[in-house]
Amino acid sequence: MTSAVRPTRTLADRLTTIFWRKPGLLLLLLITPPLLWLGVVYLGSLAALLLQSFYSIDEFSGLVVREFTLKTYAELLRPSNYDVILRTLAMAIAVTAASAIAAFPIAYYAARYARGRWKAAFYLGIMLPLWSSYLVKVYAWKLILAKEGILTWAATATHTGWLIDAALQLPGIGGNSLSTSYIGTFLVFTYVWLPYMILPMQASLERVPTTMLEASADLGATAAQTFRTVTLPLALPGIIAGSIFTFSLTLGDYIIPSIIGTSASFIGMAVYQLQGTAGNVPLAAAFAVVPIVIMLIYLTLARKAGAFDAL
Amino acid sequence: MIPAVEFQSVSRHFGATRAVDAVDLTIAEGAFFAMLGPSGSGKTTCLRLISGFEQPTSGTIRIFGADVSNTAPHLRHVNTVFQDYALFPHMTVRDNVAYGLMVKGMGRAQRYAKAEEMLALVHLDSYGNRKPAQLSGGQRQRVALARALVNEPRVLLLDEPLGALDLKLREAMQDELKSLQRRLGITFVFVTHDQSEALSMADSLAVFNDGRIAQIGTPAEIYAHPKTRFVADFVGSSNLLPPALTQSLGGPARWSSLRPEALHPSGTGPITGTVTALRYLGSGNRVTLTTQGQTIAALLPATDAPEIGSTLTLTFAPTALHVMDEA
Q: Which of A126, A201, B199, B202 could covalently link to B34 via disulfide, CB atoms 3.0 to 4.6 Å apart?
């Protein structure tokens, strides 16, 4: 007669038995390192940042005064600083809206129609730009958008140069050339962040069952009504997820606006300059808190509007 | 009378696959019509051709006389209860039911009143404020039914309406669908792979096989007089007897079918064989015996339980042997 129980031989047998008797133990072992990383390194530095923003700088000595004050935050409201915030916010909104509009047809095609090899081609096409260096892409765009660049050249060759000229004549966002105007900054931001919008959008559209769209048509809805009342609400969590990326990445970026555009300051550039050359860490910290606050407000509004109801 | 649905040599091919192949079909107004067949037989494609989610490769489809070959689904006076119900998860039950009226531009108060009426019809009066996720499978099915009926369709299509329900619920729902159809007088067309469901609910049915209709008729006609071996085998369970055996039992040299419940044990009879298997069904015993190299199943009373290996003699009424058209 063989026994119904195999003998415990190896260490692996013993460990497996311990984990089987106490399932919580394995979970604890697995989540402790990432939790420490998130809790201490990430949230800790965020707390340190928040703390710094409540300090101020002594204007004569240039030294940080370690006393609680709201003076630094009040400085954000100075016209020169306030402009930076408004400019960044407007850019982030424009980039997010443009990304959402440009990404939707691509994500919709990928989710509804692409199969097998075409789906692989889609993922490759979306991911490929993310594999090359961000700086290379931005400098490439500088050349494309420059006055002597390929875009102007192509426009001249096809007699559509007046289109670019008309865009550059626009008050506020126009300029000397595309690479030195807000239009250029906007184009490059939209290009660079587009994949971050497409991927979550595609994932959420993929989860909308085809029968749901058929049911809507079956009940008498036109294609536009189906889109508005079924597709869009069900895809909204994905669109919000994508917009969190495009919005927060634009709010924090300092490289694109310093290479392409009017050289007017954005929040990221302000943080970079204040904590570096200017040595004003409290104000840099206060600036860095702004995108966090804006994102919190944005998410609260999105939740109130029911964007996460379909989650 | 103009038929509710009419197919004139309708085909739907997917590449080389002939999902529906030259089907002619007429469904009378007010009928409870079943499309029965194994998976891949073309029954669901036929349903989707009526709703407009598939377009025929060739042929003409008429709904109440109107050629709908070029009519988009949202313009047809036909509504569907989907197999997975396809309820909108982000809307309340009330908004789901009122959806068809909302897209037509009916005011909120009016469409909610109508939605409540429909919910009452399917016995879900107090569930209007819930979300579909808070309902059981049977309740979701009722919501899907109410949502499809709110538009007052002239034909209601049901795709495997009872497939996802457990046995008890399925039986209750069968009765309810039948009485609902009788009260509303709407033509119901449903797809099923379950022959007992088709027999018990429909007043007329089409048996599909390989993209074609094998037989159309009333449940009684199809059960008692199957035209082909496929129909005899698929609808109910049946003993299919090859020509030689049919002849030895007093019939012509053709294939015939003999229902298990038509066989009775007796002292003398045309069929004598060895019992090879016995299954207790509660209501009776299903006995399998071998005779002349052929296995034959018989449904015996529960009190009649022959030993495996024993010899059993069976008899049947002469009319029970059904000779098929097929050679």
A: B202
Structure-token match 């002597």, residue found: A148
For chain A, which residues make up each domain, given as ranges? 12-41, 71-304
Mapped onto helix, strand or coil, the DSSP state of residue B58 is strand
pLDDT at A309 over 70: no
The CATH homologous superfamily to which domain B5-231 belongs is P-loop containing nucleotide triphosphate hydrolases (3.40.50.300)
Contacts of B164 in chain A (CB under 8 A): none
pLDDT at A166: 84
Q: Answer whether B99 sits within 8 Å of A212, measured CB to CB.
A: no
pLDDT over 80 at A2, yes or no = no
Superfamily (CATH) of domain A71-304: MetI-like (1.10.3720.10)
Q: Please indicate whether, in this complex, the C-beta atoms of A215 and B100 are within 8 angstroms of each other.
A: no
Q: Is A212 on the interface with B (CB under 8 A)?
A: yes
Picking from B84, B89, B147, the nearest residue to A219 by CB comes out as B147
List own/partner pairs for A225-228 with CB under 8 A and 24 or more apart. A225/B103
CATH class of B244-323: mainly beta
Tell me how far CA of residue A118 lies from CA of A113, A210, B49, in angstroms. 9, 19, 28
Render pLDDT for B173-217 as a digit per residue (tens, 0 to 9): 888 899 999 999 999 999 999 998 999 999 999 999 999 999 999
Q: Residue A310 has what pLDDT?
A: 58
